[in-house]
Predict the 3D structure of the following.
Amino acid sequence: MSKVKFELEFPIHASPSMLYQYFATPAGLEEWFADRVNSRGKLITFMWDDSEEEAKIITKKADERIKFKWTESEGDDSYFEFKIQVDPLTKDVAVIVTDFADDEDDAEEAKMLWQNQIEELKHTIGA
């Protein structure tokens, strides 16, 4: 079954190097994304209340992007990615979140969840 891919763009007033720490380190991710985050090499465990999810880091480039793949979705092409984009003219910074959902309804729900998560991130960093 193919999944629905979606991308969301969020302008954020912060430097790429600072933002990257919130996407690529357990301490940074714990600030806004999950209650607890454990890292063993490329394997990351995200914990919320009574649930736990594992993801592998597929690719990362410092201050630019990090892409994760949930271990439970090994059989498909889905992933989630945080990409930091800087406008060459204005120097405005945006975060582009790419994710997948099972269908359009799930995609709408996931988009709302990401909007809330990114709002939490902005609040955390004071952006």
